[in-house]
């Protein structure tokens, strides 16, 4: 480790709420949700907010309540001085992770010493796809995409259809996908029960209607979408959503969710100057492009590229946080790279706790940092599939790791 490296100093997240009007976080404005993690990520380590030189925020549906450069509004609400700038970005599902990458890259370039990568998505308010052309997936009489921007060299299909193609190509059965979904809920339930998330989650105050239809204040302190024990019979009876006789169902895919997360990064030199604990070193950051029809198996080459750049192997990685957009995506990646199941999402994933699109990258990074520390493990790898055929991966090293040899 070197003072020239970039380090994670703090990583926090909200609980992940169910992304419906009945969900606890629905009543929380996205600005207020993001402002709370932006406040906590500096105040928890007693870092003066004026030291932050840029905030990059992932937002996948940057419209209405999530438009107008939401991180700038949120940082002002959180008490940052007007001198702190911010920008929102959209690399679809990888946006929050990309925000952390860009924060690191600003430091590595020498432009900054302190930055924040974060993400927010309140899907119960800003519906998925609200920023898209509604004709994007329509087909003409010839079966080709009927696009306002003319001819296009690839089919444009829904991610759910891509998940079905992946299941077929990699020979992943419906039973395997359902079993993985059950495991995700079980692990998330046990992690919550054992208090593994307490150090990373900021309780959020909201409002809900009680049984008398009266509005009352409530606190959300845990991930709201976790269901355990899972009714196997009910899970197995769910119909395929995207393909007749397919295997992808609402039960083995990620949930529509609300949430936010933030990761504070610094140069090693600045962290030493401020006397701050370095939580994790950013080892490698990669993004890749893949076929836009298969689309979601990009996490395979992204993982390989990250390992190659780091001169590490699958065996060197102790914990994997692989976004559970669909069970077939994670299982095809596992099968191809021969990743041990015990290392994959040890505290559950998006099938159980949900996938607030722009926030998930920062939320998974937060989970990864805390899990490496909790278990005294050294290396963690995070990867996420991305629509239209992209993927992103990051490798981090636990700075407090102590070898047992």
UniProtKB/TrEMBL annotation:
Keyword Transferase: yes
Name used for this protein in its record: FadA
Species for this entry: Acrasis kona
GO molecular function per UniProt: acyltransferase activity, transferring groups other than amino-acyl groups
InterPro entries xref list: Thiolase (IPR002155), Thiolase-like (IPR016039), Thiolase_C (IPR020617), Thiolase_CS (IPR020613), Thiolase_N (IPR020616)
Highest taxon listed in the record's lineage: Eukaryota
Record: active site: 93 (acyl-thioester intermediate), 355 (proton acceptor), 385 (proton acceptor)
Family to which this protein belongs: Belongs to the thiolase-like superfamily. Thiolase family.
Residue ranges of domain Thiolase N-terminal in the record: 6-267
Keywords per UniProt: Acyltransferase, Transferase
């Amino acid at each position: 480790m070197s003072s020239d490296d970039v380090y994670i100093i703090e990583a926090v997240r909200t609980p992940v709420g169910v992304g419906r009007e009945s969900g606890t976080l629905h009543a929380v404005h996205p600005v207020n949700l993001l402002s709370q993690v932006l406040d906590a990520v500096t105040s928890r380590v007693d870092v003066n907010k004026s030291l932050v030189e840029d905030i990059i925020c992932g937002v996948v549906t940057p419209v209405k309540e999530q438009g107008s450069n939401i991180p700038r509004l949120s940082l002002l609400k959180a008490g940052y001085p007007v001198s702190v700038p911010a920008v929102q970005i959209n690399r679809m599902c990888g946006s929050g992770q990309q925000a952390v990458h860009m924060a690191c890259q600003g430091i590595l370039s020498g432009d900054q010493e302190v930055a924040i990568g974060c993400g927010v998505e309140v899907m119960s308010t800003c519906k998925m796809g609200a920023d898209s052309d509604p004709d994007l997936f329509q087909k003409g009489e010839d079966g080709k995409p009927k696009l306002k921007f003319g001819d296009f060299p690839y089919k444009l299909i829904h991610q759910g259809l891509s998940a079905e193609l992946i299941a077929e190509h990699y020979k992943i059965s419906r039973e395997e996908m359902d079993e993985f979904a059950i495991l995700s809920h079980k692990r998330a339930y046990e992690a919550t029960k054992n208090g593994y998330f307490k150090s990373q989650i900021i309780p959020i105050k909201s409002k809900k209607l009680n049984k008398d239809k009266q509005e009352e204040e409530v606190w959300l302190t845990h991930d709201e979408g976790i269901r355990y024990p899972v009714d196997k019979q009910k899970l197995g009876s769910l119909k395929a959503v995207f393909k007749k006789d397919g295997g992808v169902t609402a039960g083995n895919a990620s949930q529509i969710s609300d949430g936010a997360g933030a990761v504070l990064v610094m140069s090693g030199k600045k962290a030493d100057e401020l006397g701050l604990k370095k939580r994790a070193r950013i080892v490698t950051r990669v993004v890749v492009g893949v076929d836009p029809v298969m689309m979601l198996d990009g996490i395979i080459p992204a993982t390989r590229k990250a390992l190659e750049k780091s001169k590490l192997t699958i065996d060197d990685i102790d914990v994997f946080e692989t976004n559970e957009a669909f069970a077939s995506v994670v299982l095809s990646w596992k099968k191809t790279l021969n990743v041990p199941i015990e290392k994959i999402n040890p505290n559950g994933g998006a099938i159980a706790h949900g996938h607030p699109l722009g926030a998930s990258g920062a939320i998974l990074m937060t989970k990864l940092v805390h899990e490496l520390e909790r278990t005294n493990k050294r290396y963690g790898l995070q990867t996420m599939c991305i629509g239209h055929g992209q993927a992103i991966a990051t490798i981090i090293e636990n700075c407090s790791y102590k070898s047992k040899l």
